[in-house]
TrEMBL record:
The keyword Transport applies. Belongs to the AzlC family. It comes from Paracoccus aminovorans. Keywords: Cell membrane, Membrane, Transmembrane, Transmembrane helix, Transport. It is a multi-pass membrane protein. The chain crosses the membrane at residues 121-146, 152-170, 177-193. Pfam families: AzlC. InterPro entries: Brnchd-chn_aa_trnsp_permease. This is Predicted branched-chain amino acid permease (Azaleucine resistance). It is found in: Cell membrane.
Length: 225
């Protein structure tokens, strides 16, 4: 039941990736291999879009890694809870670490701090059946749906709508909104660069802006107290 809200989002999102990847020309083994090996929705969409734009392989790989850098922060925050787990378990945990699993696990660990390491690992692996497995199934269903859609039905709109849906709920504070604004403006300014290279300029500018605004707000708050 704890994972139900995530499943309701993962199912259509996974189907959408199957549809978009099929529309990009990937066949069933390629799409499913991509999904199983990468297991990261946002970077999968990014990579497929760049591949569709015939971007160099290095740009595709670096972009996918950049999108997934947040997982490094997730890993760091899980160290106090799972750092003592056996290396084999930690390797599998790294593979199945996605946004939904992390959110479920960290909330459960903080609510039940007395759990043993073995119990924490077991809970995390339990979330896989509630998130990753539905993602695989939804992607497969999306491939079949995508193959049934006529080529005359353009699906290019799916990608920007997906990322808007991902980003919009995160715009909860002034630093987030400032970073998003700079990201949009920067992407438009550097849109003339090939293979989406403008994103590599807009992204750090946006992150610097968000950090700067947050620092400014913290200093302003400190000055008032």
């Amino acid at each position: 039941m704890q994972a139900l809200p995530f499943v309701l989002v993962l199912l259509p999102f996974g189907m959408l990736f199957g549809v978009v990847a099929s529309d990009a020309g990937l066949d069933l083994p390629q799409v499913m291999g991509f999904t199983v090996l990468v297991l990261a929705g946002a970077s999968q969409f990014t990579a497929v879009q760049l591949m569709t734009d015939h971007a160099p392989a290095l740009v595709v790989i670096v972009s996918a890694i950049a999108v997934n850098l947040r997982l490094a922060m997730y890993s760091a925050s899980l160290v106090p809870w799972l750092g003592a787990a056996p290396a084999r378990d930690r390797a599998w945990l790294a593979y199945v670490l996605v946004d939904q699993n992390y959110a479920l696990a960290i909330q459960h660990y903080e609510k039940h701090p007395g759990l043993s390491v073995r119990q924490r690992v077991a809970y995390f692996f339990g979330t896989v059946f509630a998130t990753c497995v539905p993602w695989f199934g939804a992607t497969l269903l999306g491939i079949w749906v995508g193959n049934a859609i006529p080529e005359s039905w353009a699906l290019d709109f799916a990608m920007p709508i997906t990322f808007i849906a991902l980003i919009a709920p995160m715009l909860r504070s002034l630093p987030h909104m400032a970073a998003a604004l700079v990201a949009v403006v920067g992407s438009l300014i550097f849109a003339f660069l090939p293979s989406g290279l403008g994103l590599f300029i807009a992204a750090p500018l946006a992150m610097a802006t968000g950090a700067g605004v947050e620092t400014w707000m913290a200093r302003r708050k400190g000055a008032r107290t």
